[in-house]
Design goal:
alpha+beta, DNA Binding (I), subunit A, 2 domains, 5-stranded mixed sheet
């Protein structure tokens, strides 16, 4: 029971039914019980209806539904809830990692301009860490592995290299563009872009 309660498997929508977050069933139950959110009872694309907590705890468990056992009996775990008083779509900057640096740089070596296959590229610190360079959007670029090795612990100009573009942090994006459906839940596909 505790396993399912603590997995991020509940999609949260704002009152305009735009995806804004992912929560655990435990969080969802708390929001529903305090009337901060309603669950969506979803049976295919054509049957979607908001359900309050008082009704939700009486709904039957359908085949394939996740549920938790309580003193009152089993309660279905919602896959989607709506935060009834929240209208905004929060913004978020993508996470700083190799995949997102590669994506920002168009999978292109920032020294040669060559498009790289995934196994041909690596992260390069423009100012090497040995010289005080930090892990930041402004100091990391996607580079061909052989170029990165040749550069070593030198600054680009010391290695005879020049950056094609100045690395910058990407703009914050609406959270709807960065939310994913890692568990492949069919109900989420109605609200998330793939």
């Amino acid at each position: 029971m505790n396993d399912i309660l603590n997995k991020n498997i509940v999609l949260v929508l704002n009152r305009n039914w735009q995806a804004i977050n992912i929560r655990t069933p435990q969080d969802a139950f708390c929001q529903m019980a305090t009337n901060v959110a309603t669950a969506l009872d979803i049976e295919g694309e054509n049957h979607i209806r908001p359900v309050t907590w008082d009704e939700w705890i009486t709904l039957p468990i359908r085949e394939g539904d996740n549920s938790v056992k309580t003193a009152r009996g089993a309660i279905r775990v919602p896959s989607v809830i709506v935060a009834v008083n929240f209208a905004k779509v929060p913004k978020r900057r993508p996470t700083l990692n190799a995949r997102n640096i590669c994506e920002r740089d168009g999978n292109r070596c920032q020294y040669t301009g060559r498009i790289l296959r995934p196994d041909e590229g690596s992260l390069d610190h423009v100012i090497p860490r040995s010289r005080g360079g930090v892990n930041s959007w402004e100091n990391l670029v996607w580079s061909a592995k052989e170029v990165n090795q040749r550069k070593g612990d030198r600054l680009p100009h010391e290695a005879g290299l020049k950056l094609l573009t100045v690395p910058r942090a990407p703009k914050e994006l609406p959270v709807t563009s960065v939310l994913r459906n890692p568990h492949g839940l069919p109900e989420w596909k109605l609200f998330l872009k793939e």
